[in-house]
């Protein structure tokens, strides 16, 4: 295999930067949610309604993000998403600290949510293109970079809160960082695919066609399941440690930290697993480990065993989401619309999962409610075959060898 080109290596660094910045924005906003609630004088239920505005923006933008990428290109869509996020944050800042009004804050969150969605789809499409140039399944490391961005931003937020920095200053600074960082990063993105007429390369499909493709929808189901597994831990693992195992709140947070660290490590080590075993076996192994981790967490006789379950849960949740995005982007000509469809299906887990589990937790208790994540892992195990590399040869690492072996047999 020939050495990767300098352009591909620069693009890899640029995609890492795009993921870090996206994660940093999300963490900065989440860190200010209590401040925004108190400044606006909202109840918890009122704040939850306000937060739906961000989800609404993402839900509306994500299904059409693929078409935007096709029209504007990956770099411009990422940059446009960052600018949109910045405008949304500025409006939220003015609404909260300047006007003290909920309505303009909600409008700002809708705008920011739309920007994050388009940014998210475009950077995953670019990441998939970089994978193909490098012939290496590194999408999981891009997503680990997103986690690094969230952790770094959260640590900075703690410092800024301790120093009494107001919400408007914090969010405005993040807005400037998002735009400046993406301007620099997108300069090193790969060029857009432009096959010559008659070159024999497949034409891209339309967004409507992508929504009717069985393979694309099954990959979406896979991503939906693994997103549910991850989202369940994000929302309920700490509470499960506290309510289900009688631990202190600090121990509950420690349990969630174990999950996040394990998931980040799993994403960093993911390329080795994918290279060795191939995409589908790695996904099945991950789903089995996640199901086992949730089972151990739920049935644990003490907190120490529950922590071990959280560790397995995090390792098992690491590869599903990024590998699903890689599978959606197998064919460059249609990567944008397929990633858009898969993202739209998958992200519904982050929207619908928390309230559904909340209803279940009211009936069974939190620690038993998270058993639903084990069920989702089993479903993911059975639909993992949808992520098998296309027979036309767009595959990575061991997945490429697997596809070539099938073609020659």
Automatic annotation (TrEMBL):
Q: Can you tell me where the transmembrane regions are? A: 12-30, 50-70, 77-96, 102-122, 143-162, 168-186, 216-233, 253-270, 282-315, 335-353, 365-387
Write out the annotated subcellular location: Cell membrane
Per the UniProt record, the lineage of the source organism begins with:
Bacteria, Bacillati, Actinomycetota, Actinomycetes, Kineosporiales
Molecular function in Gene Ontology: transmembrane transporter activity
Q: Which UniProt keywords apply?
A: Membrane, Transmembrane, Transmembrane helix
Superkingdom of the source species: Bacteria
Q: Give the Gene3D superfamilies listed for this entry.
A: MFS general substrate transporter like domains
GO CC annotations? plasma membrane
The main place the protein resides is membrane
Domain (Major facilitator superfamily (MFS) profile) ranges:
11-392
UniProt-recorded name of the protein: Major facilitator superfamily MFS_1
UniProt cross-references to InterPro entries, sorted A to Z: MFS, MFS_dom, MFS_trans_sf, MFS_Transporter
In the bilayer, the protein is annotated as: Multi-pass membrane protein
């Amino acid at each position: 295999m020939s050495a990767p080109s300098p352009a591909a290596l620069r693009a890899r660094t640029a995609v890492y930067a795009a993921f870090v910045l996206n994660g940093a924005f999300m963490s900065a906003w989440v860190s200010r949610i209590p401040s925004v609630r108190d400044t606006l004088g909202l109840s918890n239920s009122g704040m939850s309604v306000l937060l739906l505005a961000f989800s609404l923006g993402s839900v509306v933008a994500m299904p059409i993000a693929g078409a935007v990428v096709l029209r504007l290109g990956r770099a411009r869509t990422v940059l446009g998403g960052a600018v949109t996020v910045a405008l949304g944050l500025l409006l939220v800042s003015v609404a909260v600290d300047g006007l003290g009004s909920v309505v303009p804050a909600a409008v700002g969150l809708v705008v920011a949510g739309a920007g994050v969605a388009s940014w998210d789809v475009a950077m995953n499409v670019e990441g998939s293109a970089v994978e193909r140039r490098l012939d290496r399944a590194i999408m999981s490391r891009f997503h680990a970079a997103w986690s690094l961005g969230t952790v770094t931003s959260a640590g900075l937020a703690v410092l800024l809160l301790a120093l009494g920095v107001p919400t408007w200053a914090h969010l405005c600074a993040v807005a400037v960082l998002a735009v400046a960082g993406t301007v620099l990063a997108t300069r090193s993105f790969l060029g857009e695919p432009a096959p010559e007429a008659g070159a024999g390369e497949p034409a891209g499909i339309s967004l409507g066609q992508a929504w009717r493709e069985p393979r694309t929808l099954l990959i979406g189901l896979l991503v939906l399941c693994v997103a549910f597994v991850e989202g369940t831990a994000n929302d309920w693992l700490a509470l499960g440690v506290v309510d289900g195992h009688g631990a202190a709140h600090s121990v509950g947070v420690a349990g969630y930290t174990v999950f996040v660290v394990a998931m980040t490590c799993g994403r960093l080590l993911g390329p080795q697993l994918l290279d060795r075993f191939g995409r589908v076996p790695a996904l099945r192994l991950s789903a089995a480990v996640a199901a086992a981790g949730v089972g151990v967490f739920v049935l644990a006789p003490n907190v120490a065993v529950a922590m071990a379950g959280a560790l397995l849960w995090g390792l098992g949740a690491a590869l599903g989401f990024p590998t699903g995005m890689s599978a959606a982007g197998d064919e460059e000509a249609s990567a944008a619309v397929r990633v858009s469809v898969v993202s739209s299906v998958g992200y519904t887990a982050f929207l619908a999962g928390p309230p559904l589990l909340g209803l279940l937790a009211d009936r069974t208790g939190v620690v038993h409610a998270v058993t639903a994540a084990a069920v989702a892992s089993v479903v993911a195990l059975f639909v993992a075959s949808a992520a098998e590399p296309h027979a036309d040869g767009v595959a990575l690492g061991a997945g490429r060898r697997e596809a070539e072996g099938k073609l020659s047999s």
